[in-house]
């Protein structure tokens, strides 16, 4: 009777150990999954930062190009103004009614 009780207790202990082992395995699996998700989130964040940096570079390039175009337009305007002054400054270009 006593041996039977000991065997029963041993069996119960083995069952509990097995249950604990199963829980531990499940916890390890969850932790691994969480690590994997964190890693994926990190990769996505890194990709977003990279894209933002790329967009910033493109915006900077666009700004430089706009500035360059404004400068050229200004030069063209100045040149046109100079040419206009030269054209109307020459007596040959004035209308005949304006020549005294």
TrEMBL record:
Q: Where is this region: Disordered?
A: 1-100
Name of the featured protein: Uridine cytidine kinase i
Composition bias, Basic and acidic residues: 1-17, 25-38, 62-82
Is Hydrolase given among the entry's keywords? no
Domain of life of the organism in this record?
Eukaryota
Task: Give the Gene Ontology MF terms in alphabetical order.
Answer: kinase activity
Gene3D superfamilies from the UniProt entry:
Helix hairpin bin
Keyword annotations: Kinase, Transferase
Q: Which organism is it from?
A: Paramuricea clavata (Red gorgonian)
Query: Is Transferase tagged as a keyword?
Result: yes
